[in-house]
Amino acid sequence: MHVKDARWLEITVIRVVRPHATNKERDPRSSWFVWIGNTDANIAEIALEYAR
User: Which domain of life is it from (predicted)?
Assistant: First the structure.
């Protein structure tokens, strides 16, 4: 995946699924995020923390 005007930019797309959410507008079951930053970061740990 790339940003049209910045194809050189490396990003990570993260999907966080919260099975117990109500899936309403203010409590979505799935959320999508873009990570631009330290490639050594533990993306799985970040996603799990957000899901809590």
Answer: Bacteria
Cα distance between residue 48 and residue 43, in whole Å: 9
Cα-to-chain-centroid distance, residue 25: 17
Tens of pLDDT, residues 3-51: 677 777 788 888 888 888 999 999 999 989 888 877 787 877 877 776 6
Among the residues of 1-52, which ranges form H helices? 43-51
CA distance 28 to 16: 10
**Secondary structure percentages of the chain, helix, strand, coil, to 5:** 15, 30, 50
